[in-house]
Amino acid sequence: MSTRTPRTNAPHEVVERALALSRADGCVVIADETTTANLRWAGNALTTNGVTRGRNLTVIATVDGKEGTASGVVSRAAVTVDDLESLVRSAEAAARAAGPADDARPLVAGGAPSPGFTEPPAETSSEVFADFAPALGESFRRARDGGRELYGFASHQVVSSYVGSSTGLRLRHDQPTGTLELNAKSPDRTRSAWAGRATRDFRDVDPLAMDAELARRLGWAERRTELPAGRYETLLPPTAVADLLVYQMWSSGARDAAEGRTVFSAPGGATRIGEKLSALPMTLRSDPGAAGLECAPFVLAHSSGDDASIFDNGLPLEPTDWIRDGALNQLVTTRHSAALTGLPVAPAVDNLLLEAGGGKSLDELVAGTERGLLLTCLWYIREVDPATLLLTGLTRDGVYLVEGGEVVGEVNNFRFNESPVSLLGRAVEAGRTERTLPREWSDYFTRAAMPALRIPDFNMSSVSPGV
Question: Are 425 and 418 in contact (CB under 8 A)?
Answer without folding.
Answer: no
